[in-house]
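Can anyone check this?
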Amino acid sequence: MAASYIVRLPDGVEYGPADLPTLAGWHREGRLPAGSQVQAEGSDDWQPVAEVLRKQPPPARPAAVPSTGRLAAAFPKPAAKASGAKAPASTAPRPTAVKPGPDAAEPAAAPDRPGPDEPARPRPARPARRSPSPVPKIPRAVLLVAAGLLLVVVLLGTLLAALSPWIARRRARLEVQGEALPDRRFADPALGVIVEAPQGWLILRPETPLVPPSDAKLILAQPTVGAFATLRVESQPRLVAGEDACLDALVESWRLYRPKLQVLERGDQRLAKGQGRLLHASWEEAGEPMRGSAVVFHDGWNYFTLQAWGPAATAAAFFYEFQALARGVGPPGALESRVDEAVRQVAVEAPELSRTAVRLLVQVRMSAGQPTDDLPETSVRVVNRGLIALSTAESAEMGKIYAQVWGPLPEAERNHLARYLEQVRAGRAIAPEEAQPLRQLIKAGILSLPEDVRARLQALNEKAIGAGLGRP
């Protein structure tokens, strides 16, 4: 069965159906203007007439019916019926009229039969088919404006990301400055320590929330590198030259809440007067790498710890700032001078004791507010309490050394000296006029020992004194 088509002219009027030969004839005769389209019945697609005819050349057809001329307006148009006679039927199929589109005029009435010169008459009107509405195009100016706004948003986001660290540092600096005191000098009359804060360091209020509560005597901050520092003091009368022992204890305390702590370096650190022992360490805090430093120094039995911490991102500047701060710390030294003087006096009267043992005894006495002039005598009790710390061989060795001290003495003096030592060990009070001569006997006997033997006796006594005082 030959395919039939509906024809749509450029003005929207539709005709048909017509087969391919009929379409070809209309096309040859110029009745189908440029832009005319056809639609195969049963399809929704419209195609140009020329394309359909080119793809499917029509088969041979009978000779065309003579035509009286072209239709007006160059498109098929119904003609008036001739009166009194019937015109022969056209060889073309008779199409039914199609209702023109909304913008086309209603076609004129047609006779019942087409004339010989007519290709076909319109079929009964039907609603025109509308092609899908095209997607509206966005104006170029709107696209340019949208692209510009998007670019501005991206640039602002990039700028904000780049400025975020600076903004955070600025906010932290303002927060620190709000907690700062106007003074740049700290002095504690009771302890005698003085701190001159260098440029960039600020002294904070003791109750500042920026640092966890502690027993710190002083709290400082360096907002440029994001560092904080504290100065603490602890009475340690049983420590002698114990800066490294204090650093060891500090590291252990840090490791309790900083399990990834690593000690980077130890050394000496110059202070405003004298020096202390220095420690550098690293750890992580809430996933952020951190750096910390501490320097320990002492005045007598008071041990001071200056510690600071800050982000690892500013490690180089942090270490420089910490050293500047440490050089501004002035150990008082007054207490140390008093201890040194007492140690000198006791060491002269008790040559059986090492300088370390004498300093330990002096610090314990002075920290309790007690005198030190009777230490040569009372040290005997401390040694006696600490003999348990000596091994059997060490106790026997000490007995042999003291036998060399007592041996040259006359028997009466040895007996007198033995009673004196028993009273001292028992803690009984002895009149100075009685004790002094006996102490001189002991002193002379100790000084008569060979130097290496005397040094060995001092080492044994130091070990016993440390145990007798409960030395850490």
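Reply from J.R.: I decoded it. Residues 62-126 have pLDDT under 50 and may be disordered.
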